[in-house]
Amino acid sequence: MRKDSNVPIDLRSDTLTQPTPAMREAMARAEVGDDVFGEDPTVRRLEARVATLLGHEAAVFMPSGTMSNQVAVRAHTEPGDEVLLEGSAHVAYYEAGAPAALSGVMCRYLAGERGRFTAAQLEAALRPRNLHFPVPKLVVIENTTNRGGGAVWPLTQVAEVAETAARHGLRRHLDGARLWNAAVAAGVPEREYARHFDSVSVCFSKGLGAPVGSALVGGHKFIQRARRFRKMFGGGLRQAGVLAAAALHAVEHHRARLAEDHAHARRLAEGLAALPGIEADPASVESNILMFDLTDRPADEVAKRFDQAGVRVLTVGPRRIRAVTHLHLSAADIAEALRRIRAVWPA
Ligand code: TLP
Question: Model pTM greater than 0.90?
Answer without folding.
Answer: yes
